């Protein structure tokens, strides 16, 4: 028992919260599991937590039971409001709920640093938000850490290392400015209804500054061109970026015949700096 609120199956029955496919609803009903996920988010005491897509509130209850100072929950489905209000009453002053689309709402006005983010979201919304959270105008970002559920294949793309099939733009984006780790794996049966695929929780911690210096836009151009044609050699896939691309690749120790998936983040950042200097010179 993590709190004195009713079990989640009862909450769902009372409020008639039948899962809707179009909202990507696969609920976690085991409070021991949601508590365990909340613990992966780090020390929450003294932190505000942004939770996206609380649904009936299993993870929300885990976050509050773990001592979050304040949880701001953004939920698109108004049917979940009564269940979330019940949680807010049990934790006075510690839960604020906003009904709406997390892709349209700027949560910052409602949050005080330090801020952590936790969510079990529909996978498409989760990936879009992750990319936004990893590409703010200024670094460090508003968040200290992100603890997010993804389908396992996406989680593997976030933490992938060079040479693997999963390695690509998402890995480079995540690992350039954050530490990223898979901290839990969940089978389909952990959810109601069960999705078709396995899931995994990824924990990302923001680095105070990027791991290696590079201009974000130029790095993105390079990885975009390199991985859009991942079977091509870099001298061909990056040809459009600079007339002397082969010499630039050589200058930073990347064989022009290599493919993007073989190249480490540090080398891509070195190439971004060389390309920037060559364009300016
Ligand atoms: N966090 C709950 C849990 O673990 O049981 C619910 C998880 S369910 C996979 C995803 C939740 O995100 C649903 O409650 C759904 O209504 C909500 N949702 C879907 N799209 C959303 C969006 N754009 N903004 C906010 N919430 C969204």
Automatic annotation (TrEMBL):
Instruction: Identify the InterPro entries for this entry.
Output: KsgA/Erm, rRNA_Ade_diMease-like_C, rRNA_Ade_Mease_Trfase_CS, rRNA_Ade_methylase_Trfase_N, rRNA_adenine_dimethylase, SAM-dependent_MTases_sf
The record, for SMART domains, names:
rADc
Asked if Transmembrane helix is a keyword of the record, the answer is no
Which residues make up the binding site for S-adenosyl-L-methionine?
A: 26, 28, 53, 75, 101, 120
Which molecular-function annotations from GO does this UniProt entry contain?
16S rRNA (adenine(1518)-N(6)/adenine(1519)-N(6))-dimethyltransferase activity
Q: Start and end of every Ribosomal RNA adenine methylase transferase N-terminal domain?
A: 33-208
* Classification via SUPFAM superfamilies: S-adenosyl-L-methionine-dependent methyltransferases
- Enumerate the UniProt keywords alphabetically: Cytoplasm, Methyltransferase, RNA-binding, rRNA processing, S-adenosyl-L-methionine, Transferase
- Mainly resides where? cytoplasm
Transmembrane stretches, start-end: none
| Source species, domain of life | Bacteria
| EC assignment | 2.1.1.182
Reaction catalysis annotation: adenosine(1518)/adenosine(1519) in 16S rRNA + 4 S-adenosyl-L-methionine = N(6)-dimethyladenosine(1518)/N(6)-dimethyladenosine(1519) in 16S rRNA + 4 S-adenosyl-L-homocysteine + 4 H(+)
**Coiled-coil ranges from the UniProt annotation:** none
Protein localization? Cytoplasm
Name the CDD domains on file.
AdoMet_MTases
Family (UniProt): Belongs to the class I-like SAM-binding methyltransferase superfamily. rRNA adenine N(6)-methyltransferase family. RsmA subfamily.
As for what it does, the entry says: Specifically dimethylates two adjacent adenosines (A1518 and A1519) in the loop of a conserved hairpin near the 3'-end of 16S rRNA in the 30S particle. May play a critical role in biogenesis of 30S subunits.
Write the protein's name: Ribosomal RNA small subunit methyltransferase A
This protein's species is Paracoccus marcusii
């Amino acid at each position: 028992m993590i709190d004195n609120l009713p079990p989640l199956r009862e909450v769902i029955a009372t409020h008639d919260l039948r899962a809707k496919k179009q909202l990507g609803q696969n609920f976690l009903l085991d409070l021991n599991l949601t508590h365990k996920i909340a613990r992966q988010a780090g020390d929450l005491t003294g932190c505000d937590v942004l939770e996206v897509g609380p649904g009936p509130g299993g993870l929300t209850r885990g976050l509050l039971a773990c001592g979050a100072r304040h949880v701001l929950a953004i939920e698109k489905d108004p049917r979940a409001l009564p269940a979330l209000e019940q949680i807010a009453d049990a934790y006075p002053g510690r839960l604020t709920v906003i009904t709406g689309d997390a892709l349209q709402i700027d949560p910052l006005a409602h949050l005080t640093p330090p801020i952590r983010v936790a969510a079990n979201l529909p996978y498409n919304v989760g990936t879009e938000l992750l990319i936004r959270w990893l590409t703010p105008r200024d670094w460090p970002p508003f968040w200290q850490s992100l603890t997010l559920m993804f389908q396992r294949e996406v989680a593997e793309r976030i933490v992938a290392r060079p040479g693997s099939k999963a390695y690509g733009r998402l890995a480079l984006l995540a690992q350039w400015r954050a530490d990223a780790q898979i901290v839990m794996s969940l089978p389909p049966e952990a959810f109601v209804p069960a999705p078709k695929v396995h899931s995994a929780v990824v924990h990302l911690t923001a680095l105070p500054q990027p791991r290696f210096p590079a201009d974000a836009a130029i790095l993105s151009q390079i990885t975009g061109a390199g991985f859009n044609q991942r079977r091509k050699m870099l001298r061909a896939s990056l040809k459009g970026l600079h007339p002397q691309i082969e010499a630039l690749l050589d200058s930073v120790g990347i064989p022009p015949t290599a493919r993007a998936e073989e190249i480490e983040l540090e080398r891509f950042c070195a190439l971004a700096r060389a390309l920037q200097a060559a364009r300016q010179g």
